[in-house]
Design a protein that fits this description.
globular
Amino acid sequence: MLNKKLINTYYKKYNLKKETIIFCISSILFLFYSLTFKDIITNNITSALLLFFVTLFGLPHGALDTLIAKKYKLYKTFSQFLLFNISYIFLAFLVFIIWIAMPVASLLIFLLISGYHFSEDWNEYKLHYFYKITLGLSIINFPLIFHTKKVENIYYFLTKDVAVYDLSFLQVIFAYINLLFFILLLIRNYTSLNICIQCIIILSTSFLLDPIFFFICYFCFFHSLKNYKYSVKELKGINKNKIRLTVTLNTIFSIFTGIVIYFYILNDFNLKNISALIFIGLAALTVPHMILRLLVNSR
């Protein structure tokens, strides 16, 4: 368990944001784990950790979408509520079908969408839009610079198409350009302690950690926690038990869907199948989640 008292102390003393501290602590713990048990960490252990942390911390951050949609009056009646949920599920299912039909193109679009979506984690800072995009894209680009073969294997797991190696080659070129602008951002924002620490963590862990562990640290202990906190803040005034119930039910539904897909399509517990289940599943959920955000922001 993370020491809540310690987090609050640094939060107040150095004006560090809680997600910065949690991101830092989780990264240190994963680095310690990787170095200490590097000889016994198998692909199945990595798969189990990915499945556990994304299920526990990743899925809930989008599970409040139904309440957010209601707050912004995207639906008012029960029939509209049903229509909203059916549309949400249909969009997710459509993304899944398109991925199966056009895996490489879907992967490319998912990477671009993810880079944009991750860039929104820095909306609260007074950063130029270009630098936010730089930060968002660094999450998907930097692991490819330092762990090219491992990332290419993941890409192949997701597509089963050798064309991903051409995609990877082009992405590496853009990744180095991304790195240059990332360093420039760090130099220009050295006075912001939070941004400096976040940048250092992203750069160091993308180099030191396995790409899957890097993804867990960022997605679960920075992006998801930050988004969940933002969603709860948006829903201020709504009964907390209702929020917990909504998160629980939507998360259970997502888990149930994942189990069905696993047993009827994948049916073998290994890094290849778990990576496909997690990342294609996240792609399917990200599209309706982002469309909702665009609708909310337009109001």
